[in-house]
Specification:
Ribosomal Protein L30, Chain: A; three-stranded antiparallel beta sheet; single chain; alpha+beta; 2 helices
Length: 59
């Protein structure tokens, strides 16, 4: 599979703890922080869980 760039565009304040933990597991800790990660089923499942907080771009 390819790579995906994820960027946090909305705050995690006032979100459930599981969503905050999912962001940390994806390697994102700050607003507007980007990360390029390898696309896999597990990663895409985590992205889907918090997609309302992220901007996702295929590379």
């Amino acid at each position: 599979m390819g790579k995906v760039r994820i960027t946090q565009v909305r705050s995690a304040i006032r979100r459930p703890k599981d969503q905050k933990r999912t962001l940390v597991a994806l390697g994102i800790t700050k607003l507007n922080q980007s990360r390029e990660i390898e696309e896999s089923a597990a990663v895409m499942g985590m992205v889907k869980k918090v997609e309302h907080l992220l901007k996702v771009e295929k590379l």
